[in-house]
Amino acid sequence: MRVLTVFLVGSLVWAQSRAAWGGGGWFQVGYTSMSGYGRLRDSVQVAGLSLPSTATAVTLGGGGGGYLGRVFVGGTGETYLGSTVRGGMGAGLIGYFWRWKERWVFLPVLGVGGAGYTFLVGGRPAEADFSQATTGGGLPPRSFSTSGVIGTGLLAVQYFSPKGWLIGLQAGYERALSELGDWSAAGIALKRGPAITPQRFYVRFAIGGGGLSSSQE
Prior knowledge:
The protein has helices at 2-17, 38-46, 130-134, and strands at 20-35, 55-69, 71-81, 85-96, 98-100, 104-120, 143-160, 165-176, 183-185, 188-190, 199-214. By secondary structure, it is mainly beta. A hairpin with a 3-residue loop joins strand 5 and strand 6 (104-120).
């Protein structure tokens, strides 16, 4: 018991001695691969349309936050720009960082926020009823949109240069926290749509500005 107490006290003192304060903001560009929408794919295939099982996209966005002792608090947001999926996300972030080699930070982070997805379908039905083209319903739409609450977890490596530059690399996973089934197409709400749980892996490169000071310095 005494050994455990000494270890815990020593760990706390060591952690405080390596605490840091500061913050930064950055622009980020990345790549993402999304899955988890198989029911939507099955539904559009019945109508003679096509949708790949995995959607990839380039992402553009930004983020920022502050370091309070050993805790990071901030946020991030980005847009998906793909041929199959478009949309975007925004989330609040909280993390606990490990600092080494003076200006390097290793940062595991969790976040909760919201995301919107628009899936772009391909192909065309071989035939359709004439009434589909002459009534308000129209022919099958070319895109389907939904949104919901998401959770994300990521690992980030950041470098703070002496001149105030911040450079970073992030890798993470994002998932809808519940099934999404409220759909729209061409601005019209769609009833009885398929329920999906989108999930994606992503990598990002970040560049911006910021500063970090340590109690060791």
